Amino acid sequence: MSYKIDHDRPNCIGCGACAAVAPEFWEMSAADGKSDVKGAKRIEEGGEIIREELDITDDQFAKNKEAADCCPVNVIHLLNAKGEKII
Question: Is 0.90 surpassed by the pTM of this model?
Answer without folding.
Answer: yes
